[in-house]
Design brief:
single chain, 184 residues, three-stranded antiparallel sheet
Length: 184
């Protein structure tokens, strides 16, 4: 359900700008999240059909010189669903990071106030990551059930995760500051 909502957000957001084929949608997603985190065509097309059945997009066949293609066009209902999804707080789960990447891809569709809300949520998530990783680091250092070599390796991984989380927190903090300065 969480994964489905994340991909719904992406599809609906992409269609806010223009109608697209499933192939174009998947290519756009790859460009945002990378090949390893994208959706398969076997999952994408049923999701497009589901959104069409819900009245959130319209699927029409367009014939090109190659072969017929399904083109998805956003409906008013789909636009409303997009706004619900983009402005909803993001729950902490294994898709949180990816959901924020997708939301960041649609900042251009939001008012400055809405952008700042999304960015503040992302900043809070990044701060929470730093806190959780620091706590995990302390727990590892005092874990009597692990070998010293395993602890040392685990601490290296946590160090890398902390560097990445700190960079993310610094990036979003700077972006919020820049956007607030343009507001003045």
């Amino acid at each position: 359900k969480v994964v489905s909502r994340m991909y719904e957000l992406f599809i609906l957001g992409q269609l806010m700008d223009r109608p697209m084929t499933g192939y174009q949608l998947r290519k756009a997603l790859v460009s945002v999240v990378g090949q390893e985190l994208t959706i398969s065509f076997g999952a994408l097309y049923p999701l497009l059909d589901k959104l069409a059945a819900a009245g959130e997009l319209q699927l029409d066949f367009k014939t090109t010189s190659k072969r017929p293609q399904k083109v998805a066009t956003l409906t008013k209902s789909g636009q409303q669903h997009f706004w619900q999804l983009i402005l909803a707080p993001v729950c902490l789960n294994n898709q949180t990071q990816l959901t924020f990447l997708i939301k960041l891809n649609f900042l251009h569709l939001l008012t400055l106030s809405q952008q700042l809300t999304v960015l503040a949520d992302f900043q809070a998530f990044a701060q929470g990551q730093l806190t959780r990783l620091t706590e995990h680091q302390v727990q590892l250092q005092h874990n009597v059930h692990m070998l010293a070599a395993d602890i040392a390796d685990a601490l290296l991984v946590v160090d890398l995760q902390l560097v990445r989380a700190q960079a993310q927190f610094d990036w979003v903090t700077t972006l919020i500051q820049t956007k607030k300065e343009t507001e003045r």
